[in-house]
Amino acid sequence: MTAVTIDAESLKEQIARARQGDRWAAERLVRAHEGWVRSAIYAVSGRRDEADDLAQQVWARAWDRLDTLENPAQFRAWLYTIARNTAIDVGTAERRRRTKTTALERTTDLPERPQRGPAATAAGNELHATLLRAVQSLPALYREPFVLRHLQDWSYAEIGEVLGLTTETVETRLVRARRMLREMLQDKVEP
Known about the structure:
Helix 6 crosses helix 8 (167-185). It contains eight helices and no strands. The protein is mainly alpha-helical. It has helices at residues 8-19, 23-45, 51-65, 75-99, 119-137, 140-150, 156-163, 167-185. The chain has two domains: 1-101, RNA polymerase sigma factor, region 2, helix turn helix motif (Rna Polymerase Sigma Factor, Chain: A), CATH 1.10.1740.10; 121-191, Winged helix-like DNA-binding domain superfamily/Winged helix DNA-binding domain (Arc Repressor Mutant, subunit A), CATH 1.10.10.10. Mean pLDDT is 79; it is low at 99-111.
């Protein structure tokens, strides 16, 4: 699916139509928001490999609860809350499951990236994996705003709205996230 942008009036109309069971309207809402929903899941869980499965759960929950959305203008914040809570719920269940496994049964969160060719590709793959591990290791407190800002290009105000923070707090968390990443990557990435 390709990304679709929806203006405020069209958003209200699409939500109203989706509430009435219009599949086309629901599909348009998904296309317009699916990218950042996956990023929100990643921001909370720190695991890209879960994003597709969890996104399906998010949309299922959203359609089940669409009648609870009081203000269509708040759709993005409402949907983010569902995505965040879904990722937290799954993460909690995963942690419970992991405590029951032995250390030998545990697997790494990052799948191996296949080496496909010349040394430059291999180096790029290694750099990508290193950066991804560093972002994943950030505490969720800092990872959420970092992913929303730098992977989804959300404004500080938008991040503050969905996370319930002031723009100053968002800015502070982003500064700290960047500082933590610089420290983690200091000896691992060449300038």
